[in-house]
Amino acid sequence: MPEVSGINVLVFPCGSEIGLEIHAALRHAKDVRLHGVSSVDDHGGFVYAHHRRIDAEARSPDFIEALNALIAEWGIDIVLPAHDDAIPVLATAVAEGRLHARAAVPDAETAAVCRDKRLTYARLRHLGCVPAEVDADTGAYPIFAKPAIGQGSQGAERVDDAARHAQLRACGVDYVFSEYLPGQEYTVDCLSDADGRLLHSAARQRGRIKGGISVRTEAAAPDPRFAEIAGAIAAELRLKGAWFFQLRRDRHGTPKLLEVAPRIAGSMALARMQGINHALLGTLAHLGSAFSVLPQQWPLVLDRALTNRYRPRLDYRQVYLDLDDTLIAGGKVNPWLMALLYQWRANGIPVTLLTRHAGDPCQTLAAHHVACSLFAAIIHVTDGSPKSAAMDPAVPALFIDDSYRERRDVHAAFGWPVLDVDAVEQLLDQRA
């Protein structure tokens, strides 16, 4: 795979689950500079170091104008969509020459086909993998209803009788009604080159769904039909880069198509753990670069849940850190604090190890492969005096210690923020 050199990437909307996976996939990529944009106050600001909120949504008249302003300001090379609504808008803007950067989207016609399931089914029906549509009243219930324009399983439902069928047909939402598919559901992650040639596809089970998003997934049992459908869709739509489609088995066990999406999927993280970075390789494809894929596989389950990010507004210019049961507890070094030691060092914040350790602190640190040079000073309190007596009150500080008595004393003496070990995760800056 060629090296990526100096690419400025803009992700919109960066706080979506897709945007968060793009961030995780590209944050360590050499010479890729990530920029996140959102139209709402979302999680993107806690994740993207270069972040901006704009007032325009994807379907707003001034959306492309707002993006172009940031493209000029940040020197953006390519825009990566992180929501289905943004894809046809960007594709149309590219076709009309209104977007001042490349975008990881298909041509405008294909983008429109993928956004509307009615158009998707019409375009791909000849491939033999599209479920049978039900346009009129039928006595053969249940059937399946899904908005023609939507994402995930949002708005989808099983329809068990003619009364509910009639309600949905009259509700004002454009539904696609099709045969009911009672079997296992799958996502097939795909990667194509700059010419739309399929290089790799891999199916995974959608084990647990929450809010229309697959939050537990693992590799599906081999089925040659998955690869056949992937190849057929690829040949028909000629999608570049990363894309995926979803299948569900009918009552006979035959996989039938649910939708096709020309973008990153949030759970493509499963493939990334086994060496296939869809966001990075997909970006290369849209930039016209050649690359190869190295498939690997071992038993692996991805399970996703809410996670916490923090934005602390703490005023401190030095840190006092305890050793026993803080930096080292239960004979193990605390990895959060080790990461913070390097973060503080990079940011020029001196750290003083302030300890009542029974032995030689440096020997204990060395035994745990922690360099004493990470600390600006090591103060060994052996006379029973309060730790606050060893501190410089002239420089605002942060104090971290597992002892409530020690924390209470320092806070009473100086009013500084004092933290137990359970609270240090708020200090780690994971933005990129």
Describe the protein.
The chain is α/β, with parallel strands linked by helices. The chain has helices spanning 17-26, 44-47, 63-74, 86-95, 108-115, 117-124, 162-169, 224-237, 269-272, 278-286, 335-346, 361-367, 404-414; strands spanning 7-12, 32-38, 51-53, 78-81, 102-103, 143-147, 157-159, 175-179, 185-192, 198-210, 213-219, 241-249, 255-261, 301-303, 318-321, 328-329, 332-333, 351-355, 377-380, 397-400, 418-419. The protein is built from 13 helices and 21 strands. A 6-stranded antiparallel sheet has the order 13-12-9-10-11-14. It has a 5-stranded parallel sheet with strand order 3-2-1-4-5. The protein has a 5-stranded parallel sheet with strand order 19-18-15-20-21. α4 packs antiparallel against α5 (108-115) and α5 (108-115) crosses α6. The longest helix has 14 residues, at 224-237.
